[in-house]
Amino acid sequence: MTDKINHEPVKVLDKGFVRLVDFMGGDQGVVDAARVSYGGVSKGAEADKKLIGYLLKHSHMTPFEHSVFKFHVSAPIFVARQWFRHRFAAYNEVSFRYTEVKDDFYMPSTWRGQDKKNKQGSSAAIELDQKALHAMFKTQVDAALAVYKNMLEQGVAREMARMVLPVNLYTEFYWTVNARSLMNFVALRADTHAQFEIQAYGEALAKQFKALMPWTYEAFLRDGWKGENPTIAAEKAALPVLQTAAR
Ligand SMILES: Cc1cc2nc3c(=O)[nH]c(=O)nc-3n(C[C@H](O)[C@H](O)[C@H](O)COP(=O)(O)OP(=O)(O)OC[C@H]3O[C@@H](n4cnc5c(N)ncnc54)[C@H](O)[C@@H]3O)c2cc1C
C-alpha cells in the first residue's frame, strides 16, 4: 500500500472514468522482488533505478508482476469488449441482469470516417455532416432506451430487455492488473493503431502508471514502448541521455 494513491476518478471520453482503488509494490516492489533472488538489499536509489532499467531492457519481466494496480473503470461496452481481451488481469463487472440500465451512453463528439488504407482504422472526414449524424444517432439511442424501459414496465426480465441496447452503453468494472500486464496494455492500447476510444483509456492509465511507478515508466519508455503516440513520443524524446560506464 502507498500514501501516494489519488482516489479521484480521472475522466475519460464524455462520461467514463478510471479511478485507482488500490496500489501495491511500486518501483520498490520490483527492486525488492529482483534482489530476493540473490538475497540482496537496496543499494540506494540510483542503483535501484538502474536495476529496473536493466530488468526491462533484458526482458527480466517477472519482478514487475509484484506491483499491482486495482482500478475502477467506467467505459462503453465496445471498449470493455476490447479491454477484456487482456487476459492477465482480474475482472468483475456490473451485472445488467441485476441492475437496471440508466441513460448512460457514450456520445462521440466527432464522427470519424473509414480510413482509406487501414481497414481497421478511422480518420478525420470533413465531408461528414456531424450535426445530422449526431441527431440520427441520438434518435436511435433514445428509441432503444425507450423500448428497454417499456419492456421492463411490461414485466420482461432485465436480462432479456437489455438485448435491445446498443454497445455505446457504459459499463463498469474492477480491473486488477500487475505492472507487467499494464505495460502490455499501454503498449497496445495507447498506440495510435488502437481505436481512438480505448486509446483515451490507454493514455489515462499511462499517466497513472507514470505517477505511481516513475522509474518503471521511464524504463518502459526507453525499452518497452515501440508504438506511436505523439504525447508519449515527446516524453520519450525528453528523457535524459543515460551515462554509460567508461571502458
Ligand atoms: C490495434 C489492435 C487490433 C486488434 N485487432 C483484433 C482483431 O481484429 N481480432 C481479435 O480477435 N483481436 C484483436 N486484437 C486483440 C489482440 O489480439 C489481443 O487479444 C489483445 O490485444 C490482448 O493482448 P495480449 O494477448 O498481449 O494480452 P494478455 O491476454 O493480457 O496477454 C499478455 C501476454 O501474455 C502472453 N500470453 C497470454 N496468453 C497466452 C497464450 N495462450 N499463449 C501464449 N502466450 C500467452 C503473451 O505474451 C501476451 O502478450 C487487437 C488488438 C489491438 C491492440
Quick overview:
The chain has helices spanning 26-35, 45-57, 77-83, 130-153, 158-161, 179-189, 196-212, 214-224, 230-237, and strands at 10-12, 16-24, 68-76, 90-93, 113-114, 122-123, 170-178. 30% of the residues are buried. With 247 residues, the chain is of the alpha+beta class.
Folded structure, characterized:
By secondary structure, the protein is an alpha+beta fold. Helix content is 43%, strand content 15%. It folds into 2 domains: 10-92 and 169-237, Gyrase A, domain 2 (2-Layer Sandwich); 110-164. It has helices at residues 26-35, 45-57, 77-83, 130-153, 158-161, 179-189, 196-212, 214-224, 230-237, and strands at 10-12, 16-24, 68-76, 90-93, 113-114, 122-123, 170-178. A 5-stranded antiparallel beta sheet has the order 1-2-3-7-4. A hairpin with a 3-residue loop joins strand 1 and strand 2. The model has no long low-confidence stretch (mean pLDDT 94).
Draw up the topology in text.
Layout: E1 10-12, E2 16-24, H1 26-35, H2 45-57, E3 68-76, H3 77-83, E4 90-93, E5 113-114, E6 122-123, H4 130-153, H5 158-161, E7 170-178, H6 179-189, H7 196-212, H8 214-224, H9 230-237
Helix pairs in contact: 1-2, 2-8, 6-7, 7-8
This protein binds flavin-adenine dinucleotide.
